Structure of (Mediterranean fruit fly) hypothetical protein:
Amino acid sequence: MATKRRPLRPNMPGPSSSNMNFRPGGPDIKRGEAKGTRPTAAPTSVREILVMMIMHACKRTIFFDTNLKVALYLGSLFLVSLIGDFIPYPKTYFARSDNLFNVYFVKVGWGWTLMLTVPFLAMTSYTLCCGDMKKMLRHHIPRIVVATFFWLFWTKFFNIIETSYGRCTVKGYGTKSSCLKAGHLWNGFDISGHAFILIYSSLVLIEEARPIIKWESIKDYLRNEIHDRSVSEHSSTNPLRNLSEEEIRNLHFLYDRLTPVIRTLFIGMSTLQLLWDVMLVGTMLYYHHMVEKVISGIIAILTWYFTYRFWYRTNLLPDPAGSGSFFYQRENKDTFVYGRRPTMMTPAGPSTSSGSRSNMPSGSFGLSAQPKFMGMPLYTNARNANAAGSPNLTGANNNGKEVDS
C-alpha cells in the first residue's frame, strides 16, 4: 500500500515548497544536501515554440559559413558575370532598372541596413553592458560609424573614378554632368556600386547579428546565478559570477524587456540579408561588366575583413559584436573575440568578455559536440553532455564531479 511521501524539511519556515520550483535552502544547508536544487526553467508555451522555430530558421540562413559565403560571392561574381558578358541572359523582371526591389531597396540599401542594424546593436549592446550607456557608446556604437564611413568613402570614390576616367559619346562635352544633361551617354569605368553595397551590407548584417547566438542561454545563466546568490553559493562556471548586484538587476530587467524586440529585429535582418543575396544575383546577371563587379566585390570583402576580422579583434576600440560585461558564447566557434584582452572592467574584477580560453572551465570544450535541438543544448551540465557523446569519457574532464554549464 502506497504511503504519503515524507517532506524533506517538514519544519522549514517560510513559503511552502510546493509553491517553489526549487527546494528552499540557505547558508545553513550543506553542499551535499543542496545537490540538485537548481531552479527549473518555466514551461514553454506554444507561441514560444513557434518563435524559436522561426528564429532557428533565420539563424540557419544568416549564419551560413561566412568564409564559404565570401568565396561564393567572389566566384559567382567572376563566373556568372563573365558568361553574361559574352552570352546575354534571358530578360526577366529583375533586368529592368525600375523594378520595385531596385528602386525602393537597393538604391537606398544602406538606409535599410542601418534601420535594422542600429536598434539591434543598441539593444543587444546595452543589455550586454548591463545598462551602462557610456560603455555601450564607447565600445559598440563606433562599429556602425566606421561601417558608414567606409560605405560613404567607397561610393564617392567610385563616382570619382567614373567621372575622371571617362568620356562622352559625343565630342565637345568634357564633364559627365554636361554630357548627360545634353542627352548623351558617358562611357567610363563604372565600378559597380550595387555589387559593393549588397555584399558589404550582407557581411555587416551577419557580423552585427552575432549577439543573437546563444542569446537564450542568458536567461538560464540569470536564473542560476540569482538562485546561487540567494543560497550563498558561488558558481565557478557561470559567466555572470563577477557581476555586481546592480548589474544583475539591470541585466535581468533589460533582457526581459528587450528580448522580444531583439528577436523581431533579428528576423528582419535575416530577411533583409536574404533579399540582398537575391538582388546580388540580379546584378550579376544584368548590370555592369565582369571586371567592374569583381573589383567592387573585392573592395567590399577587404573592407569587411579589415574591420571585423582584423581591427575589432585587436585591443583597439571598438569591441566585437557580442562582447560586454560578461561572455556567454564560449562554445560558439564563429565568435571572433577569442584572444582579445579585456577592454571592459566590472567592479568585481576583469570582465569575462575577452573570451580568453583560460577563462573557460575545464571540460567546456566538449559542449559544442553535445546533442542540440533547434540550436539549443539538450543537457544543462557538462557531465550529462559527455555521457551522451561518449559514455566512456563521463567525468574524465571534471574528475567525476558535475560542472554546471
Q: What stands out?
A: The chain has a mean pLDDT of 79. The chain is about 50% helix and 5% strand.
